[in-house]
Every structure is written in structure tokens, then in C-alpha cells.
Amino acid sequence: MREPEICLALLGFGNVARRFVRLLDEVADRLDFTWRVVAIATKDHGSVVDPDGIDVRRAMTTVESSHSLGRLDPAPRERSGIDVVRQVTEMLADEAGDGHLAVIETTVLDIDRGEPARAHVRASLEGLAHVVTANKGPAAFAYDELEALAESVDRVFFFEGAVMDGVPVFNLVREAMPAVAVQGFRGVINTTCHYALSEMERGVSLDEAIAEMQSRGIAEADPSHDVDGWDAAAKTAALVNVLMGGGITPHDVSRMGIRDITTREVASAVTRGRRIRLVASASRHAGRLEVRVEPEMLDPADPLACLGPMENALFLRTDLLGDVGIVQRTSTLTQTAYALLSDLTHISRRLQEL
Ligand SMILES: NC(=O)c1ccc[n+]([C@@H]2O[C@H](COP(=O)([O-])OP(=O)(O)OC[C@H]3O[C@@H](n4cnc5c(N)ncnc54)[C@H](OP(=O)(O)O)[C@@H]3O)[C@@H](O)[C@H]2O)c1
Fold this sequence. Notes:
Layout: E1 5-11, H1 15-26, E2 34-41, E3 47-49, H2 56-64, H3 81-91, H4 93-97, E4 101-105, H5 117-126, E5 130-133, H6 137-152, E6 157-158, H7 170-176, E7 182-188, H8 191-200, H9 206-215, H10 224-227, H11 230-244, E8 254-255, H12 263-271, E9 275-285, E10 288-298, E11 312-318, E12 323-328, H13 333-353
Parallel strand pairs: 1-2, 1-4, 4-5, 5-6, 8-10
Antiparallel strand pairs: 2-3, 7-9, 7-11, 9-10, 11-12
């Protein structure tokens, strides 16, 4: 059977998107599809649309040397992300109609309303493109609406990278746990805060630990989103919406970050055999959802107390399988990029089944 070619429109071309296109090249011989990048949109580095295919290496060098992508465009002009989606879905109407166009959304999370990612996802689905995103916003703010839209146009809206990078959480439940009801969860799901608290146990300051996470491209573009618990709250809302039918937003999560925790407090907990961790949890009591993100003083026997500095873990409480634990032992950009790649593989399989 011939491998499908998937046209890719990249909305956002930062750390994650650039690692993603490099990864596609690195593992090309393991993939059952080929690809052509037809559009790239950024906020301050311009945009390029070319249905014949963009030279992605040149695009990376252009952005990394702070030039505008417009210089690669056959007909350069100013466009927003939405303009790019509309142009691409019109220009590639045949590919979109056949399900061979995928929008890869990796813009920055806006914690007020989940925009512009929500609008990007909506416009892409309306233009009959599949959507893959590592952005938490769409699933955290508008999962029900966007999933219903995707189903109505027979396209997919995938977001595996939104929580625990490439380690399967959503795909695991969707593909491997049929008929299982998720009743709640508890986890450590923000790498930046977890790394910071782990490093503070060794006397490192919060600011130094955050700077290290920024230098590795892991902290959020605005690291106060990590420190104040917003990133974890967005992930928690996405998990509640997708796995528990919650219909909430990050603003419905009871939230406390780690900004006010001192190195002395963290070290003092260790001397008493305890660990302070930022824990995300959800449960239902008498039909009411209780959803929180807050630092907890953990007993050493707690599985969340034993994680290494770059590890995340999520324990799902289910009706048919009991507690199911998912541990992510490595957390780098490659794992986030892999999440996009794995979602794209699902699209390729759909195309091959047609
Ligand atoms: N980094 C991680 O480890 C990680 C892990 C999981 C999930 N994520 C999520 O993945 C997404 C991308 O993260 P990242 O680290 O790649 O961020 P990043 O390096 O800051 O890149 C963000 C990209 O989005 C572009 N952008 C921002 N606003 C835009 C808009 N309104 N329209 C079009 N483009 C826009 C930026 O343009 P400019 O280049 O012009 O600024 C940039 O190219 C975020 O939602 C993040 O939460 C990241």
C-alpha cells in the first residue's frame, strides 16, 4: 500500500515545533507516511505559505537567526494564524477534503481564555484539516465544543502532548481502556515545578531552578504560569474534561502554586523524611467534582514522593482496572515532539484505512 503524504501547516514554530520537524526527519524510515510542510505561522517571525512545500531547514535557520519567514514566501504578506489556516485550507481544499491536511498547533498558552489556540483549532476543523496540538488551551477550555466539531466534520482533534508530553495518557485511555470509567486521578504533572522543588532540596533557589528549565526549553514561555500553578491547572482541566466529562476550565481548578515555598521549608521537610510536591488531583464526591492543584507534604511511601527531578506521574482511579499508574521518566523536548508525531501516526493510519 502506498504511504500517504500528509500536508502540515505549523501554527507556532518555537522549541516544540522545531524539535518536531527535526524528529520527523530523524525517524523518517520508521514512519508509514511522508509529509510536506505547506505553511508556518508565528507571532513575531512572520509567516510563509507555499503549497509546493517549504524548505524547513531554511525556515529553522531563518527563525533562529531572528529573521522573518516572509523571505521564504512566494507571495509574502502579513497574516495572523487564522489567516494562514484559511489560506491553506482554501489552497489545499483537495488535500483537506481527502483528509491529507493536518494543522500542528504549538502556539503559547493564554491562560485567560485558551486563545488563539481555540480559534486556530476551530478554523482548522471548519476547513476540514485534522488538528494535532501540544497546547493545553483547546482541551482545557473548549474540549466538548471542539471534539463535537471534529466528529461532525469527520476529522480528529488530538492533543497527546498537552499532558505528560509523549507518554500516552489520552491515547492510552482511548485506545487501550475501552468501557473503563475514570473516577479520579492524582499526579505530579508540571515538570518545571517538580524539578524546582527537587533542586530546592539540594539548596538551589527557585529562581535558579526555573532559569535551568528555561534554558532547556521546558518552562512555559511565561514561567509564572508554571510557578503559580496555571500550567498544572490547565493540564488538570484537560484531564477532567477528556477523561471525566468535566466541562470545566482551568479557572474552576482550586489552585495554589509554589511561589511562596522557600528552600528552607523544602529542606526542612526532607530532614523529617517528607517531600513537598505540587500535586494535581480530581475526584467526585456525591456527584460533585473536586479539582485541585496545590503543594502537598508527602509521606515517603507515597508513589509521588519517589519521583526523580525530571519525572512526572499520574495515577488514574478507574472502576474496572483499579488504580492505573503512568510514569514519565524522561522529560525533554523530544518527548513533546514525539507526542505530535504519535498523533500524526494515528491520522496516517486513518488515511490508510480509507
Ligand atoms: N516546551 C515544552 O516542553 C512543552 C511541553 C508540553 C507542551 N508544551 C506546549 O507547547 C506549546 C509550544 O511550546 P514551545 O516551548 O514551543 O513555545 P515557544 O518556544 O515559546 O514557541 C511558541 C511559538 O508560537 C508562536 N506564537 C505565539 N503566539 C502566536 C500567535 N498568536 N499566532 C501564531 N504564532 C504564535 C511563537 O511565535 P514567535 O516565534 O514569533 O514568538 C512561537 O513560534 C505551548 O502551548 C506549550 O505549553 C510545551
